[in-house]
Amino acid sequence: MKTKTWTRKGFTLVELLVVIAIIVALAALATPAILKQRKKMDMTQAISNSKQVYLILMDFESDMGNFPDANTAGESDELASFTGTQSNKLLGQLIAGGYTKSEEIFFAKGGNPSGNQKPDDVISPVGKILEAGECGFAYINVTGASSGLRGLSTSDNGGIPIIMAPVAAGGAEPTFKPDPYDSRGVYLRVDGSARSERLNTTDNKIKIGGGKTLFQTGTGTVWGEGDSAVTPTVYLPQ
């Protein structure tokens, strides 16, 4: 008489629980590194986009004399509606004026109030250009001692920021959102260089040499002094 031999297949409940526990533990260890890498990639994209915006700004300045402001908006019917207190509107002049057809270069993750919304690249009719949520960069105009509010130009100090992200609040000393880029801020300068700097943990501002902040004005700053000094006005995206 033959005896049948039974072999056990599969895992016991205890073994399955052990495997699940190991997977959960490994996932918990890997998640922070994955998130950190994701934020670094988002920051790299913002830097790359800002450099593309700079090339368009140069073309615009060549025609208009400076970067977009309320005065350049009055230069043509196409630009007339692109003024106001949001960066979407002023930067929208670059699209409305035919200098680019891409809304995607104005994307910086976490920069706009809706957070992660991406531009749809629909720019017709003109009311569709950089609609609310489609721009991630804050934009800067300046006021001079002997002049009114105007757009920056390549004749200004090369260290002055033109656009930046992800900005939390405007005002004389803008603050950045620490979470999107792992406590770093991105800004494009008049000289065409795009930088990322670590934020001060106490106030989420960018610190530069000499213990000063990026937007601190006065002697020894990029904003100049005396008759040549300028003060910034920061337009936030909507």
Structure characterization notes:
- The protein has 238 residues and is an alpha+beta fold.
- It has one domain.
- Helices cover 28% and strands 16% of the residues.
- The protein is built from three helices and eight strands; from the N terminus they run αααββββββββ.
- Strands 1, 2, 3, 6, 7 and 8 form a six-stranded antiparallel beta sheet that branches.
- The longest helix is centred in the first third of the chain and has 52 residues.
- The chain is globular, with a radius of gyration of 25 Å.
What structural category characterises the helix and strand content? alpha+beta
- Largest β sheet strand count, sense and barrel closure: 6 strands, antiparallel
Q: Compute the number of helices.
A: 3
Quote the distance from N terminus to C terminus.
85 Å
Overall geometric form: globular
Radius of gyration: 25 Å
| Total of domains | 1
Classify the beta-strand content into a percent band.
15-25%
Q: Which helices and strands occur, and which strands form pairs?
A:
Blueprint: H1 13-64, H2 70-73, H3 87-96, E1 138-144, E2 149-151, E3 161-165, E4 167-169, E5 175-176, E6 184-189, E7 194-198, E8 230-235
